[in-house]
Amino acid sequence: MTNFQPKIYSGEIVAGALLVEESRKIARLLIDDVDTQEWRQAIVIDNILQKRSPEAARRQARLIKARLSLMTKDLWKMIVEGSSETASQALLSASIKHSRLVGDFMDTILRQHWLTFTKQITTADWKDYLDECAQIEPHVESWKPSTRSKLKQIVFRMLSEAGYIDNTKTCKLTPVSLSPQIRGYLVKNDESYVLRCMEISL
């Protein structure tokens, strides 16, 4: 039997950035511990994510559930009940744990920019980063230009939504102070990698 080695870097995040409002709805379903039939009713029949097709709804719901399932109910409650800032940071933390592509970009490129007083990220930074990823996992080299561009768009939008850059046009770095709730959760649950990625401007 061949041992399956999961990929470190995946393009799955193309289904969406932080998706705050959609994630609040999915987090509520997870908190309520709905069964398969209730999940389908909410996502496909009731279309709570307001997507144009059932497949689009299922795809986005799968991505959000995959992210949130890596965290605990305590974080889900922060997403549902917290402020926009707290919810965004909570969702970024889940996205980092779900995708090393996001986390490593923050931990390497953004951190290095802060250390060298380079206050803007660029398309060239993303290209160089993917080249580095391809050295670790050669399959990254096979990603189409359209996929690479879409992934950049998603990651940069995540950073903008969580306040790490001012917007996706100028892409200027902005310092972020973690919510005490989020930092406390990450420390309590030994999420050292996620915490390191999120505290890059210290």
Structure commentary:
- This protein has 202 residues and is mostly helical.
- Helices cover 61% and strands 0% of the residues.
- Residues 1-5 have low confidence and may be disordered.
- The protein is globular, with a radius of gyration of 17 Å.
Record the SSE blueprint.
Blueprint: H1 20-31, H2 36-45, H3 54-68, H4 73-81, H5 84-98, H6 100-115, H7 123-136, H8 145-161, H9 180-188, H10 192-198
Number of domains: 2
* Computed CA radius of gyration, to the nearest angstrom: 17 Å
CATH superfamily of the largest domain: uncharacterized protein from magnetospirillum magneticum domain
* CATH structural fold name of the largest domain: fold of a uncharacterized protein from magnetospirillum magneticum
CATH class categorisation of the largest domain: Mainly Alpha
List the secondary-structure elements in sequence, H or E: HHHHHHHHHH
Spans with pLDDT under 50 lasting ≥5 residues?
1-5
By DSSP (H or I, 4+ residues per run), the number of helices equals 10
Mean of residue pLDDT values = 93
Structural class estimated from helices and strands = mainly alpha
Tag the structure with descriptive keywords.
202 residues, mainly alpha, fold of a uncharacterized protein from magnetospirillum magneticum, 2 domains, disordered N terminus, BrxA, BrxA_sf, Inner membrane protein (DUF1819)
